[in-house]
Structures are given as C-alpha cells and as structure tokens.
Design a protein that fits this description.
By secondary structure, this protein is an alpha/beta fold. It has a single domain (8-270), classed as Rossmann fold (3-Layer(aba) Sandwich), CATH 3.40.50. It is 30% helix and 20% strand. The chain has helices spanning 8-22, 27-31, 71-74, 92-101, 114-127, 164-174, 194-197, 200-204, 213-223, 240-243, 249-257, and strands spanning 82-86, 106-111, 132-136, 149-155, 175-189, 211-212, 226-235, 261-270. Strands 1, 2, 3, 4, 5, 6, 7 and 8 form an eight-stranded mixed sheet that branches. Belongs to the methyltransferase superfamily. Arsenite methyltransferase family. Keywords: Methyltransferase, S-adenosyl-L-methionine, Transferase. One of its GO terms (molecular function) is methyltransferase activity. It comes from Rhodohalobacter sulfatireducens.
Length: 302
C-alpha cells in the first residue's frame, strides 16, 4: 500500500483508522511493534517506548505503549501552568503533566481519534481530575485560542501528520509569549528503503512519516521559535523480524549496514516573548542516552 499517491486527508484517515484499532490493543503488543503498527517483534520488547512507570502521575490504564520518549520529563512544567498535549491518546502524558501543574493548573489533550478521546475521558473520570480536559480535534488546526498555553508537549505524534510545518505554526500560535514546547518524535539521517517509505502501515507506525533531522529542526526555526535544544536522543533499531515484512534478505542487510539512522529525539524550543525563565540560545546536540555524559533532567545542562 503506497503512501505516495495518498492526499493529506487520505493519510490522516489511514492513521485515524489504524489508531482506532490500536486503542484496543494491549500496551505490550504496541511496545513490541512500531507505535502499535507494522507487526509484532518476537525478539525485542520495547522498540520505541521509554518507561513511564517511575514518573509521578503515571497511570497504567492510560499507557498504551505508543510513545518514543518522555517529553513531560523534560518539559519544565511549573505549578499552575496550562499545558496542551498533542495526540493525547489515552491520556498518559496529560496525567503526568497534571502532577506537575497541580490542581491549580490546566491540562488539555487533543486527539483526532474518537476512541482515544473516549478512553482518555474515562481514565480522567476514574482519577477524579477536573482540571484535565480531552478535546477532539486536528492538531494542524487546534481547537484552542491564541496565546493560551505555557507548555506544549507531544509524544511520537508529529510523524503521523502530513503537514509538519503547519503543526509547528499552530504550536507557535497557541503558546503564550515566552512559552515553550518539549516534543518527542522520530527523525531520520539518510534515506529509508523505498518499501518502508511507501508503506501506509509504516506511516502509521511512525517510521515512514519521519523526515530528516535537519529538516525537522529547520521547520521549528522557520516558524519563529528560539532556544532550540535537543534534550535527548536515542537510536531506534527495527528488528529483522519486522523488517522482513517489507524488505527481502538482501535489502535488510543493506539497510542494517548502510548509513540510514532512525532516531527518537526530544526537542525543546521557546516562543519569543517575556518570560521569567532563561534558556540556551542555540541548537544544542546532546549525546545519546547510552552515553554516561548525557544530561539529567533538572541538572541545568540543557
């Protein structure tokens, strides 16, 4: 199934249908696949996901194993903040963010899959949170007012959006002057094999929808953000038993030995304007999570 002939709306419908299905899958299955799509690996447990279970505010019912980072861990959320989570799924990042904002803050999750919104609302009701709201909507055209959020977070969602510059423009619009975002996403260095790049299921699986890292960061800069910082970076390795569904043996060997890299990055950027917080004024490349020199959240190095 090729993605090249699909319009933006058709791609969105592909993702919407797939994520309606994913909402009923178990977190274990999703963690062994590519964002719940692309088949299940029998060899690797967590292909993309990071472990949320140690974070305050974590709720296992809301964790579908679909993320590729921990953006809320790096988001510098303060008590009383208004936070928007893009592609909020069953609500996991929203509930972690709510712990940071406290009851005096406000958290809004936006998702365009009705089954995810329903699941998230049920989770919020069970937890008794009256300051966490889930709203049905397209993150390319957010159903919120201008200059409303202190912080925007998102976890492995922008890959699924055909018009990434439009989303960054929308993030810029809804943030207050001086507000910031922390987003975990998948980016590339080098070109994916054609069979992976053209498969609509792998688009829904956060891989075929990924763009080059440099281009991704340029989109952020062009919209007008500043203090762009890569807070965390880790390589994503697709196991052979998943690759074999799309590539032959020779293509798998070529892919594994070639120069293509798939990475999860967590990116911070700030909207210009008055703020009480000072951040670095450049793009900062931090080392991989596997390197002992990596920044720790709150250490001040990022």
């Amino acid at each position: 199934m090729s993605i090249n002939q699909k319009t933006s709306e058709e791609l969105k419908e592909t993702v919407r249908n797939k994520y309606s299905q994913i909402s009923d899958q178990g977190a274990d299955y999703n963690a062994r696949s590519c964002c719940g799509a692309g088949g299940e690996s029998k060899k690797v447990y967590n292909i993309m996901t990071d472990d949320y279970s140690e974070l305050e505010g974590y709720n296992s019912d809301a964790d579908l194993g679909l993320g590729c980072g921990l953006p809320t861990q790096f988001a510098k959320i303060k008590k009383g903040d208004t936070v928007i989570d893009l592609g909020s799924g069953a609500g996991n990042d929203c509930f972690v963010a709510r712990h940071e904002t406290g009851p005096e803050g406000k958290v809004l999750g936006i998702d365009f899959t009705e089954s995810m919104i329903s699941k998230a609302r049920q989770n919020a009701e069970k937890l008794g949170y009256n300051n966490v709201e889930f709203r049905f909507g397209d993150i390319e055209e957010m159903p919120v007012s201008d200059n409303i959020a202190d912080v925007v977070v998102s976890n492995c969602v922008l890959n699924l959006v055909p018009d990434k510059p439009k989303v960054f423009s929308e993030i810029h619009r809804v943030l207050k002057p001086g507000g910031h975002f922390s987003i975990s996403d998948i980016v590339l260095e080098g070109d994916l094999p054609k069979s992976l790049r053209q498969d609509a299921e792998m688009y829904a699986g956060c891989v075929a929808g990924a763009i080059q890292k440099e281009k991704y960061l340029n989109h952020i800069h062009e919209v007008g953000f500043e203090n762009i910082t890569i807070q965390k970076e880790k390589p994503i390795e697709l196991p052979d038993d998943i690759l074999s569904q799309y590539l032959n043996h020779e293509e798998i060997n070529e892919f594994n030995s070639g120069g293509t890299g798939i990475y999860s990055i967590t990116v911070f950027a700030q909207k210009p304007g008055k703020t009480n917080v000072s951040y670095q004024n450049q793009v900062t490349e931090l080392v991989s999570e596997n390197n002992s020199a990596s920044c720790e959240p709150g250490s001040g190095c990022c």
